[in-house]
Design brief:
single chain; alpha/beta; pyruvate-formate lyase- activating enzyme; seven-stranded mixed beta sheet; three-stranded mixed beta sheet; 11 helices; 12 strands; globular; binds iron/sulfur cluster; rSAM; iron-sulfur; metal ion binding; Radical SAM protein
């Protein structure tokens, strides 16, 4: 069971203009995330609350009260063509949302104000809001990303212990697409020597093709030093421990930046998959998303060569 705590922020919209993160504003209805993905870079945000980045991140969850009122005020100064991203530091459709409905209230407000939005999630709970998503989709003011990095049930259980399983996410994508909601497969983070093998990539691209997913956005895992250490120590206690030696070799200390040679090789391998399956590596720009930048691995693969938020910044 998680502890649910309440905060009353005066500001709920975070500007990312100076960070060049691929979107202009981010909005997060909650702090912490019960999906508890061990690689989640947002774990670091719990340190600012004097909480630990391990268990506390998924067991001490914060609900932001009076969210709608504050968001309405904050949005007054935001141009309509700025990109607002939902789900950069928490999954907006984690189980808390079924009770508190803060994410739903954000969609209602954005429909009212006319702002465009991108949403990243791992949860089928997003289907509850199909009525609102359809409105935003028809206006071309929406892009949904469903995050899924492996179809292997055991690997997912280890890496993302509290998240919905792969089948549920695939069904969610199918349902969203069936209802005409612009939906991309979010393959991030790719974890070197853990989820980057040909078999894993092949199964994902092949599944995406059979779902008729047009866009698949890929990005390699990025870690802060503290999340890297947490991740490494946690994985060392799991059946994935045998892959850690090679994993560690491509993250260079002290900053744990990914090895450039590894990145280039992965990029080339991914290019083959994009070509073979005829899937685009980035999304079309919804109306008002003029400033969306390129993904980490963007290729011209189909008729649609466009751009999207930087996936390394929008894990869900
Ligand atoms: S990666 Fe997304 S779903 Fe997983 S814990 Fe982080 S915010 Fe939650």
């Amino acid at each position: 069971m998680a502890d649910i705590l309440h905060v009353s922020p005066h500001q709920v919209l975070n500007s990312n203009h100076e960070l060049s993160m691929g979107f202009d504003w981010s909005v997060n209805p909650y702090r912490g995330c019960s999906h508890g993905c061990h690689y989640c870079y947002a774990r670091d945000t719990h340190r600012y609350l004097n909480l630990d980045i391990g268990r506390d991140f998924s067991k001490k969850l914060f609900v932001k009260d009076h969210f709608s009122d504050v968001l309405k005020k904050n949005l007054r100064h935001v141009p309509l063509n700025d990109v607002i991203t939902l789900g950069t530091a928490t999954d907006p459709y984690q189980p808390l949302e079924s009770k508190y409905r803060v994410t739903r209230s954000i969609l209602e407000i954005l429909i009212e104000t006319g702002h465009a939005i991108s949403i990243t999630t791992k949860s089928p709970l997003i289907l509850r809001d199909l009525d609102l998503l359809s409105v935003l989709g028809q206006r071309k003011q929406l892009q949904v990303h469903i995050s899924l990095i492996s179809l292997d049930a055991q690997v997912i259980k280890i890496l993302e212990p509290g998240a919905p399983n792969a089948n549920r996410r695939i069904k969610t994508m199918a349902e969203l697409l069936h209802h005409g909601v612009p939906t991309a497969w979010f393959l991030a983070p790719i974890l070197p020597f853990i989820t980057d093998d040909d078999e894993t990539l092949e199964s994902i691209f092949s599944q995406a093709r059979s779902l008729n997913v047009r866009w698949l956005m890929a990005s390699v895992g990025h870690f802060t030093p503290s999340v890297y250490h947490y991740f490494f120590q946690t994985m060392a206690q799991t059946p994935l421990r045998s892959r850690l030696k090679q994993f560690a070799e491509v993250y260079h200390k002290p900053g744990y930046k990914i090895d450039p040679a590894y990145r280039i090789k992965l990029r080339r391998r991914l290019a083959q998959f994009y070509l073979r399956y005829g899937i685009a590596s980035s999304t079309e720009s919804p109306q008002g998303f003029e400033s969306i930048r390129q993904t980490e691995f963007s290729f011209v693969t189909t008729e649609s060569q466009c751009s999207s938020p930087d996936p390394m910044s929008i894990q869900a």
